Every structure is written in C-alpha cells, then in structure tokens.
Fold these 2 entries.
Entry 1:
Amino acid sequence: MPKFHAITRAVSPALAECALTHIERTAIDFEKAVAEHSAYEKILAALGATVERLPGDTALPDCVFIEDTAVVADEFALITRPGSPSRQNETAAVERALQRYRPVTAMVGPGTLDGGDVLRIGRTFFVGLGTRTNPDGVRQLARVAKPHGYHVQGVSFGDCLHLKTGVTLVSDDLLLINPQWVDPKLFPGLRVINVAADEPFAANALRLGDTIVHGGGYPKTTESLRQLGLKVQTANLPELAKAEGGVTCCSLIFSSETK
Ligand code: CIR
C-alpha cells in the first residue's frame, strides 16, 4: 500500500474573518470548526496517512486551508503566492515544513496561484484561471514542472472559488464534476460523473489511496459514487464550509515514498 504524508494546519482563532468570494458571511463556531478539523485529520490517519499538523496563526484567518499554499508533486514543491493578499503570509511556515520533503521553489509576484486551482491528472496539471490564479502563476508552475515531464494547461471555469470546487478526480479516469461551473469538454478521454443538481458543492473530493473522502451533506452525490463501486468515506466540515473550504483544501497530501 502506498504511503502518504498529509500536512495540515490548525484552525486560526480568527477564522471568522476569513476571505469570502462566493458565499455570504455567516457566524462560524470556532470550537466546532476545530472539532471537525480534528475529525478530518483522524480520517486521513485511518486511511494510512501520516498527519503532521502545523500550528495555526491568529494573524492568518484562512491558514487551515493549507492546500492553497503549495503544489506538491513527487519531484518538487512549489510554494504559491495566494491570490488573496490576506493569505500571502501563510506560505512561510509551509515552506519551512516542505523543505524536509521536496526541493522547494517559491513563486514571486506578479504571479498568483492557489493550490485549489490545480488539478493534476496523470502528467498534466490543469490550472484554473479564476479570481485567485493568474497567467503568470500558471507560467511559474510550468517552469518548475515541465523539466520533470509535466504538461501545464491553464483553463477557464465558472462562478466558483477554485477549479477544484467544481471538479476533482475520483479514479484514474473518472472526474466528479459540476458541469454548471466546469466544462467537461476540457478533459477529453475521461469519464465524468455529475454532482446531483441540488448539491452544487459536491464536486470537491479527496482521493487517498483507493478511498474517496467526500464532504458530508451531499448524500445523493456520495451515493452515486458508491454506486460506481468507489469506496467513499465522508468528512463533515460544515463550519469550514462557511469559510468556503472543502475536503481537499485542508491538507497537502503527497507520497512519502519518493523524494
Ligand atoms: C479563501 O477564500 O481563500 C478561503 N476562505 C477558503 C479557501 C478554500 N480553499 C480551497 O478550497 N482550496
């Protein structure tokens, strides 16, 4: 069984002041957010990942959403420059942590890129060009990834925060997608399963080994995944969802077998 390392980051006591783009601000219960985050970490650990939690930071409301701060492949780690200025100081601690596992390159301005916009399918990185990631960010990822044989392609998407809010890979050739936000034609040759029409946020799923971690609260889409024979584990993150977060954004997961 492959071994995985998962880096997470504690929920900031300032989470209620998080960045919000597509949803209205509602009250967030910090204690509940901490509890659901720790249950999420337990799920990752039960699925075989070694979980390393970085400390949170009162000055960084969104630091729990660590996915956005780096792109980690077998061969490299790119420390991003998050598209929301309020999040750009999140990267220092992540850079220090990743240096132990991968050769690290840090992005520079004017490029911006959020890890939530980066969907790797085989040797291709699809990078969503939305409110957080710009073409220079895509170029900087390409500069680091191409020497390792990756193709990097910028793609447009619709009215959601990140590319992976609207599409994720749930097996080698199967995408879980919200076609209202992401055009399935961007991914020729892959099979597609649509989210249930009344579960627009259900496309964000985290693949860990042979299991799909799927947000709780999307019972119809979860059931469709199970009907396809996929092993699905649900993680309830209702408070973090109020901060526009989902299952992929709370960890950086990479193989611990390569360097
Ligand atoms: C933000 O707006 O940046 C945070 N409130 C939510 C980030 C969620 N990240 C992700 O889905 N990759």
Entry 2:
Amino acid sequence: MRTERTVAGVRAALRGPRLAERSIGLVPTMGALHEGHLSLVRRARDECDVVVVSLFVNPAQFEEAADLAAYPRDEARDADKAAAAGADILFAPPVGEVYPAGFSTTVRVAGLTEHLEGAHRGTAHFEGVATVVTKLLNMVGPDVAYFGQKDAQQAAVIRRLAADLDLPVRIATCPTVRDADGLALSSRNVHLRGADRERALALKRGLDAAAGAVAAGERDAGAIEEAGRAAMARLGVEPEYLAVVGPDDLLPVQRVDGDVLVAVAARVGPTRLIDNTILSPDGRGAA
Ligand code: AMP
C-alpha cells in the first residue's frame, strides 16, 4: 500500500488503472480505524480492482473545537490496518490540500439535513460532510464509494448529493458492525470510561425495545418511540432523540406501514453516540 498526500499524487497513482479500465473503490474515513471501517475496506476489496482509503479528519464537520481536538489520530496504526484489510492506496491529505487559502464553496443538501443530526448538531455539520465528500469523490474519481449504515443520515445525504449532482459513482451502504454485546463500533467509543461503556448499551437497548414493540404488533410511532426511551431510561440514559422516520426522506412517520428507520442519539458521559436500525412491520429487522 502506498500513501498519497496530494490530489495530483492520488490522481497520478490512479491514471494507469483508470486507463486500463480497472474499477476503483473509495472508502472515506476520518481514521481511528476499527472493524466497522475495515468491513467497508474488505467489501471494496471484494468488489473493486483498486481500493483507496481516504483518511482526513474534516474540520468543517465539527461544530465544537474541543471535539475536533479530541478526535483520536494515529496514522501509522491506521495505515497498517488499512493495508491488512486490502487497501492499495491511503490518501491522507493535510488540511491545506483539501481547503487551500481562498476556499469558498459549500455543498448543502436541503431537507434531509434538517432533522435528526442536523437539528441537534446544526446545519454546518452536514454542509461540512457534503462538501468534503463531494471533494473526495472529485479528487479520487471512484466507480464505487462505500459508507456505513451506522451513519444512516449521512449515507442518505450522500446518496442524494451524488444523484443531484450527477456524480458518476455508485454509493454503497454497508451494514453496521457491532461489538459482541451490541454496541455499534465508533471511533468515539475510546472515550467511554468505566460505567459509561455499560451505559452506552442504552442506544442498542432502545432500538431493540422499539423492534420488540413492532414485532409485538405496535404500529403507532409514538408508542414505539416511548418503548425505546423507557428501555434507555433503565440504563439512566435520556436520548437527544429517538425517532421513527422514513428510511429515505428521514421525515417522522405516524404509523409503521412499511420499512422505517429508528434513529437514536444520546450523550453517555461526555461522549455523544448515534445508532439506528431499519424495521419493517412484517418482522424483518436489520443490523
Ligand atoms: P468515520 O471515520 O467515523 O467518518 O466513518 C467512516 C465510514 O465508516 C463512514 O461511512 C461510517 O458510516 C463508517 N462506519 C463507522 N462506524 C461503522 C460501523 N460500526 N459499522 C459500519 N460502518 C461504520
């Protein structure tokens, strides 16, 4: 695996494969790689001839300077893991390569970004995500780009922007990878100390309780949300939101008549976590 730090460098590295019509897969990450990220890299390895993993902690999507400063960084470790999972190129540009002096453009996806994470983190978060992902797709020019269902709203926003901007890329969404006890893997889990690790299970318990309510025949979204919140309260965690929404438009639903996304966010100690699951009234559940 080689490491590239400039747009010119990564494009030069991909010129040969592109001319030979070899397929290129891109896995965008902010590093601190765990099995969730690596599942995306392995999927890209299975499906594409050349696998690029980007590693860029995007300042534009952090609303708190302290959160950005505390973000775990260890490029050497990430490089080893990406290589072992099958990456060919690690694209790790410095901030100045992505946002050179004079940078003035923002990509904003309306509608989808206004609820859930957008409502709680502010509109700048998804503007930062949409802008950097558009740039990474233009820098690398992949045939397929891989994202995790763990960040369901982010994946929906990226599918939308790729369609709206006619980007010549397929957006693949991959299942959430979890610890053995159900906690969704996240780079932020390293901040969970002592009893917070146990309390962090509240998000999965809330989703499981919502799934249980649907499996028991409940169709009223408010009652399903209440079941989820009650399960979280048993671990002493109050969600920022626990919402039953449409899986594509992310708008609240009143009743569960087809597939729905149940999305949850909560602070556990100082750590803000998110999780979600897709439920269907016929009893099919998802990661
Ligand atoms: P991040 O480095 O947090 O920006 O994540 C990079 C990519 O990995 C995003 O597409 C995430 O949705 C995905 N990802 C993060 N955690 C998981 C997980 N537990 N399972 C699957 N994908 C994940």
